[in-house]
Amino acid sequence: MKILILNGPNLNLLGRREPDIYGHRDYAALTAYIGETCRRIGAEYEVFQTNHEGVLVDMIQGALETGVDAIVLNPAAYTHTSIAIADALRAVEIPTAEVHLSDVDAREPYRRISYAGEACVATFKGKGFESYGEAICYMAEYVRNSKDAH
Ligand code: DQA
Q1: Is the Cα dihedral 146, 3, 62, 93 positive or negative?
Q2: Is CATH 3.40.50.9100 correct for 2-149?
């Protein structure tokens, strides 16, 4: 079981970036949390952050070659703008969970649109790091269930 965790723009600035919304813990703390969660459930994982939309598309396409079973994706601001990322998810057909630290539906109206989310099997939002924890566990279960069904 291999899970690819992808993080979009400005998430590298966690801790210093709008802490009232995103919390005081930094990106290294997030990757440590993700690592602990994946080890606890016995999943292999890779975690990656980029500020570039096309790099996220490349990473999603690249997942076809590296035996990734599921993706956990926080596209950050590209959530609300990127049809390219949504199309890449549909193209590879690797089951993906959308994740947000904040509750995007309770913020500015433009954050309620999620193109990526339309190509995902589930969305986890508004729980800080725990949004990632829930998404990782959900996708591990999702993959196990779909392997059993075949
Ligand atoms: C975010 C929410 C987005 O609206 C925002 O642009 C981000 C982070 C979140 O994790 O809450 O950069 O994806």
Answers
A1: positive
A2: yes
